[in-house]
Design goal:
347 residues; mainly alpha; MetI-like fold; 2 domains; two-stranded antiparallel sheet; 14 helices; 4 strands; globular
């Protein structure tokens, strides 16, 4: 099967997965009865009386009809981007508005941490495997074991204590630098909502450097926690690959050891690592809930925590959708990379 047909097949399989995600969200909303759904879609800032809004929503979502009918009316609103309202200290407005403003900050953490996880974890895993049972191998195994075992929130607190007074441990920028700026308000910058980019667009290198400093501890926390898993899997996969017959054949032909390791062995060993990286991206969103809360970093994770603390239905459901969609996309990308790295998987 050609790669493009494999990709099309994987894309088609996403459709039932998305339907399953909407069914889960719809079911969770209805666990508390119709009042839970109504509370998600009631606009707290509307001048329309609450009783009138509730009656309108009951009619709009056909809440007096069977659940299957309610689902299709709710799904229609969901597809159109009507995900209800959220009322938290972090953001007060529509759920989609909160996601569009806060998700870019979280995406910055996830992308940087994922890149560092791959750039550090994969080479360390290769070198550890090649130097099996050496001092370097033993050291990396200890480091990976600690990273695999330590809870992220505990690691974040340790880093805060260790670097107190050296690196910023709260927020995403010093408020003294952004006070009074027209393009920065309530912790959100414009137009991209990514402070690193927006500060460069407005020529504020001082803000860019300060925002970069605020990212160091959260990124280190996420990177170390997930790099440990990548390192362990890469080492184990590389060990198995180096014992394969085609590696012995390559060495018997007299190929340089660097070519054997970097060209023949590493690519085959990367297959399970790419699977782990795909799930790591999705897992990072779960990690940022804790990390963003510890560092008071304004993103989806911090917003999710606030929504859970006050029982904000709109925020909780919105976070579930974001996490679910991220997991689906990460799984899709992983499957496509699988097909590219190993043609046997396409069949």
């Amino acid at each position: 099967m050609k790669l493009r047909y494999y990709i099309v097949r994987r894309l088609l399989l996403v459709i039932p997965t998305l339907i399953g995600l909407t069914l889960i969200v719809f079911t969770l909303i209805h666990v508390g009865g119709n009042s839970r759904l109504i509370s998600e879609y009631v606009n707290p800032h509307s001048t329309v009386p609450l009783a009138v809004q509730e009656a309108t929503l009951t009619q709009k979502f056909h809440l007096n009809d069977p659940l299957i009918i309610q689902y299709f009316y709710w799904l229609s609103a969901f597809v159109q981007g009507n995900w209800g309202y959220t009322n938290t200290p972090v953001y007060d407005g529509t759920v989609t508005g909160a996601i569009s403003l806060l998700f870019p900050n979280t995406l910055v953490l996830a992308v940087i941490a994922t890149a560092l996880t791959a750039l550090i974890g994969i080479p360390l895993g290769v070198w550890s495997s090649v130097r099996k049972d050496s001092l370097f191998d033993q050291s990396t195994r200890v480091v990976s074991f600690l990273g695999y075992s330590v809870p992220l929130y505990w690691l974040a607190l340790i880093l805060i204590i260790a670097f107190a007074g050296v690196l910023p441990a709260s927020g995403d920028v010093d408020v003294t630098l952004v006070g009074g700026l027209a393009w920065y308000s309530n912790g959100i910058s414009s137009p991209t909502h990514i402070l690193l980019i927006d500060s460069l667009l407005y020529g504020r290198l001082d803000i860019f450097e300060n925002a970069l400093l605020h990212l160091i501890l959260p990124v280190l926390t996420l990177t170390y926690g997930f790099m440990a898993s990548v390192l362990r899997v890469m080492r184990s996969s590389m060990q198995d690959t180096l014992n394969q017959d085609f590696i012995r054949t390559a060495r018997a032909k007299g190929l340089p050891e660097g070519v054997v390791i970097n060209v023949h062995a590493r690519r085959n060993a990367l297959i399970p690592v790419f699977t782990l990286l795909g799930y790591t991206i999705a897992s990072l969103l779960g990690g940022v809930v804790l990390v963003e809360t510890v560092f008071n970093y304004l993103g989806i994770g911090y917003w999710t925590t606030q929504a859970f603390l006050i029982g904000d239905v709109g925020g909780i459901m919105g976070a579930i959708v974001v996490f679910g969609l991220t997991f689906i996309v990460a799984n899709l990308v992983t499957d496509i990379l699988y097909g590219y790295l190993d043609p046997r998987i396409r069949y």
